[in-house]
Amino acid sequence: MNVRFEIRQNGGVVILGGALSAANVDTFRDQMHNWLQDNPGVRRVVLDLTAMDFIDSAGLGVLISLLKYVSEREGDIRLAGLQRRARMVFEITRTYKIFEIFDTVDEALTAEA
Amino acid sequence: MKAVFHTDAWPGWGAALGERPGSLASVAGKPFLEYWLEWAVALGVDEAHLVLGDGAAEIEAYVGEGARWGLAVRYGFVRPGAPTRAYLRRSPALWADGLLYVRGPVFPQRLERSVGTVLPAEQAWTFRLRDETVCFLSRAPVRIAAFVNDGADEASSAWADLALDPLYLADIQAYYQLNMRLVGGEIERYVPPGYLNREGAYIGYNVQIAPSAELHPPLSIGNECRIHPLTVIGPRVVIGNRVIVDRQTELADCIVQDGGYVGRNLEIKGKIVSGSRLIEPEDGMTLEIEDPWLVTQLGVRRTLGDLGRAVAGWLTALPLVLVQAVPFVVLYAVIRLRRGGGAYRQAARRVRRQRVARLPLWSGAARPSVWERLFHAFSLDLFPLLIEVLRGRLWLCGHKPLHPEWDPARQQQLQAYFPAAIGYHTRRAPDAPEALDLTEALYYERYRSLAEDARILGRTLLGRLMDGLTGETPGGTAQPN
Fold this sequence. Notes:
The complex is a heterodimer of chains A (113) and B (481). Chain A is of the alpha/beta class. Chain A has helices at residues 25-38, 57-72, 84-92, 105-110; strands spanning 2-8, 11-20, 44-55, 76-80, 100-102. Chain A has a 5-stranded mixed β-sheet, sandwiched between helices. In chain A, a hairpin with a 2-residue loop joins strand 1 (2-8) and strand 2. Chain A has 4 helices and 5 strands; from the N terminus they run ββαβαβαβα. Chain A has one domain (3-35, 42-110): Transcription Regulator spoIIAA. Helix content of chain A is 40%, strand content 33%. Chain B is an alpha/beta fold. In chain B, helix 7 (304-338) runs antiparallel to helix 9 (383-390) and helix 8 runs antiparallel to helix 12 (450-470). In chain B, the strands form 8 sheets. Chain B has an 8-stranded mixed β-sheet, covered by helices on one side. In chain B, strands 5-4-1-6-9-8 form a 6-stranded mixed β-sheet, with helices on both faces. A 5-stranded mixed β-sheet of chain B has the order 13-16-19-22-27, with no helix packed on it. Chain B has 3 domains: 2-170, Spore Coat Polysaccharide Biosynthesis Protein SpsA, Chain A (Alpha-Beta Complex), CATH 3.90.550; 196-297, Hexapeptide repeat proteins (UDP N-Acetylglucosamine Acyltransferase, domain 1, 3 Solenoid); 304-470, no CATH class. Chain B contains 12 helices and 31 strands. The interface between A and B is medium-sized, with 11 and 16 residues.
């Protein structure tokens, strides 16, 4: 799994590549917590999942826990660029009802809450 | 009249559905090849030849000798790369009085409920796919001979005259759409699946549907399925045999193949579920789900865990036998000397590796004596079966050994069979309904594990001991019936 963090005008963008699965969710959670603590001003976080080719239930679990964490800090997490296979997992587990999902990062950054 | 069905010429979408041969893929609740066999029966075919390819053993196990359809079924193979009609040319005289030939996934789509069963002489019906004839039907010897020998005369009469419109399922989308059309109402034109049809809901036998589950027809649910509470099934859902749909899950416009488990709180719409695979019907895109609590194939394969259970079972049976040996000899001698008590009888049962063996099964007396109560409380009646565990004929914990003649149906319903000395049945009341056997067998097949074995063992040995101490009537015999 590759993770890259960027700060843009309307929020932070986390670019995820590869697989988000039970094998690496702990690492990803730690990276996210560290980055959010280093950037307390970031309220809107967009996860760019264009390059994410696989996600399992552990991956979904960590995204939900991060959403809770960010929401408690009065922020929100949006998803962008979800690929078809990953989208299928979001659909069957009903996780798509929890997240706001956009086609592109720009849309996710600029859309009204 | 004879029929020849080629199951060896299935296109790629069959493989996308999993390891089962494509001809056994469920079409509105019935395997595809049943529609062929039913068509053959309607035409008066007396002998059907199935030309096998991948999954031959599975097809043969399913169809058997064809008695279920009143057909004599023969099996054959052709060499890979052999000419298309190589099988027919082996014995051309065999087909002279009429031939129905189908190669690959040609679905005999009916236009009406009754199809043409009397074929006018001299006519032939052919269905071509590009340069190949994939379906041929005629009673005219000349036309048949020409077809078998690749003759040029393959002009077809109108299929509509027979109220048929053969449909070649070239891809997964065609397969999905056919299922949706059939379950949507066209299934009425065929022998319907299941035994219950209520307002478009075809339900198979031994299906348990929780009262809080919502069914929205049209839908079809195969045999041996479990529909858990708060599920919403339908509309346009085809569920195969032996499927479990767990709590709060919603299914619509989808197909769930045989033996599938659909986990809790899921929402599956417009998909095909085949084992642990989700398939998008539009373009055949597949997604392998690695989390077995989402979707998975129910315990078909033997796993490493089974090897562990076998070793652990044997190692547990050994001290049990050593501990029980002396008390068994003493108490059994006392019971026999007093006469009128329980006794062992040799009964034929299926044991490991599908062999039939005579097992010593304990039959308790109607009014057990104190000695017999003790015998039961210390589970000494199980001693001879524990010896069978050490001999490798039985598992320590698992399924109730099946009778080779009385239980073939139950045997078919189990995809993995673990005949054992001790099972859920061992501490059951004598008047418990027999239907429990199947439920428990399916449960064990799905949830077998070392922990489950330990639970069964503890519940049986300690439970019987407690029953003995509290004066409860012995809960049945080691092996009822």
